[in-house]
Amino acid sequence: MRNNLLITILLYLGVISIQSQSLLDELQFEEKADTKIVHSTFKMIRIGMFHSVETRKKGVVELNSFTRFWNIPEVNGQIVESNNFAADRMSIRLGADIAITNQFTIGGGWSNSGVLDGYFKYRILQQQKKVPLSFTGIIGGSHRSKNVNNIPRDGNSSSIYDANVPNTSINLENSFYDKTNVFAQLLIARKVNHNLSMQISPTLIFRGSNRFENNPDTHFAIGIGGRYRVGKHTALFSEYFWLPESSALENIETFGAYSLGVNWEVSKVQIQLFLTNTGNYAEDLVITETPVNFNFKDGHLFFGWNFSYALHLKKHKN
Amino acid sequence: MKKQLCLLLLLPLLVGFSSKKEKYISRNGKVTFFSYASAENIEAVNDQALSLFEPDTNKIAVSILMRAFQFEKSLMQEHFNDSYIESDLYPKATFEGQIVNFDSDFSGTQTKVIKGDFTLRGITRPLKIKVDITKKNNKYIISGETQVNIKDFKINVPQILANRIAQTVKVSFNFKYDYHEK
Asked: What is the ipTM, given to two decimal places?
């Protein structure tokens, strides 16, 4: 009898508590099930030097100014170049990225080393509650309007700054096609949590021509990259491109392109500050023709500064 | 004696079941926020706000999905969700309150005060809003506006923009309620 009473009281309290659920709890049953698309895997359409899975919404045009600054080391105890302004040398790429649709972006740029580059980027699949990864495809290429003599002719990467050793290019310069390389990339990314996003990017690069017979015409490379948010508007990022031995140039030792930096965005302005080991911009050049490894010595350390400004050509009408 | 006690306990249950309260629902409530800024005004509209209204108890509940705010500029919308509101972590804002001195028999428009708790980014603050309540053909319309101080909800404006973005945001809303059959 005592037990029965206890059960009755418990039942009573239980029903009372169901009745007294708040209006707000009741509202939860009315909420539409949304697809839970994961947004902002990366904040910018580039992680740093290389593309991220992100594309901009239709009608956004981003104007870019990318610069690299570096010092020239002493060769045999002799100062080769010096400049008291900021750094011994600098390079710049001016470009634009245009979002044709929410998924499709095209872009291009010109750099002062005479390289023109361009790409088509399509967002294939965006990470969702039931889709763990984002996929974006890119095809692009670069054309050298003048020869990029960035490799020492003697094949010794340490003599890159030696004025006595003439530099040469990997591509030939007889025709338009000789001076053009193309690439295709699949970007696969996952936003692990609110702060951390990772990306892996298998890449194929096809050379239009080869000055040195032993060098491969097709390169396969894998890039990895990631960002970690350290503030509401600030994130750290890093990227690295790995080329297997069979895909790397034979006539000279090359190194994987690496960058480590911070990006900061506010309003229409996006800025990336980073350290890297290359002064070039086009994907095929950076991935396959980086003759120095990353360290803090002169000639190896490049300071990168990417600046983007967004224009909205198409505005949403409320 | 014990039998009587049991009956006594069951009585409020029966009463509770029988007096099921009337509810009104708004599925396409419009919430707009507007911030005056020296550089450019920031405006966003959400027309998917959800609300339940219970005229018998004067209680009202609102749920606003942050991703449903539409901005004029897409990058602004992305910054709003990613850097300011952090919609990944705090997907919605909610309000739960009660209308003071509400007369449910009155047909037409009456101006009353709603007192309640507003939750944004996981931070709950008491809020008092003056609203217009219109009853017409067994439907209700509740509209009004209020000011929200962004610092109360730890919304961080970078120093460089501090002078260009207003500290208070004007939030206006309009909910049209239909009888909720359940």
From this structure: 0.79
